[in-house]
């Protein structure tokens, strides 16, 4: 192909991708604001009168919004997913309330979660914890308020006072719910891993090669509060085969295909020791050692152990996306056409400004999904310095408050006054994390 012609083709492809992304952004934002408005009406009229009906109707409003993003994974990029595990774990998954402990390495791990839960027909009942600031974000944040997500302030002394009440509301759901926890607190990057390793060494915690050191206080509270209320916790491990392209949302928009491999293991919540903080913390650290071994074996074999079940893409997400693309996109494009053909400079300037604004929104939405933008974990102070200052921070809230000190001493050994004071200081530091 002639270099000039090749340049023209590449330019046309990039322009087409930009126009497609802008159109998807317009449709998603306008339809999302409509859903937020309908959710508000439902909340005011039904939440305190008939909560069961509210949740049933709200489920579909959440579904219509989220599957527009899911369609990018399923249909734009033609990406797939395979489940690994024992038959009971795969069969039971999605049929009961459960807590999910998942690794947090990839930019699109949340999309894979949506893909799996959509196949299980419980997409809109997927719950998680999020930082309180997200409540102010239109469409996503506002929708999460009405979806009864758990918003936290990153201050465990305050959060633990309301966490139990928020968990009870989720437990009260008639249909199965999945409470997703990223106990690492932020996505994995080499810089964050280095900081995590230093932190683990300073606390005599297990050294993980493929994960960050899990933060335990949030998980400890949830496990203890939900015991005998939620039947199980799932260990879920996500991995992608090594390819030239990284599994990012921007690459999904470009049409690059990925195949996610997901291992799941059902564990009764009653098997999690909750008699003491130390026992629960130790159980979580041992779980992450197991997750580390799973990833290590996967990198050698490119598969997880157990039965393999391939999940095919759903036509429901495609139909939903096409419907909203027509319902909102066509009138919007026709309006732009009428304005541009009038030759009115003022109206044309307004339309151009809107396009620039929407492109900026799209750019920051995609950029926010990148792991490097998750938090400043490991990119500022050294872990030891941050721990001393009580500011060892994570970008996300899921399990981020640490109670990671597991005292190492022989059974029956009596600590000296100095050891007790050191241990209490460490406990205080971790409570501030």
Give a nutshell description of this structure:
With 433 residues, the protein is α/β, with parallel strands linked by helices. It contains 14 helices and eight strands.
Structure description:
By secondary structure, the chain is an alpha/beta fold. The chain contains 14 helices and eight strands. It has helices at 3-46, 51-76, 87-92, 109-119, 140-146, 156-171, 190-202, 217-226, 249-253, 277-301, 315-342, 345-368, 383-389, 417-431, and strands at 80-85, 98-102, 126-131, 150-152, 178-181, 232-239, 259-268, 307-311. Strands 4-3-5-2-6-7-1-8 form an eight-stranded mixed β-sheet, with helices on both faces. The longest helix is centred in the N-terminal third of the chain and has 44 residues, at 3-46. The radius of gyration is 24 Å and the shape is globular. Residues 406-421 have a biased composition (Basic and acidic residues). Belongs to the 1-acyl-sn-glycerol-3-phosphate acyltransferase family.
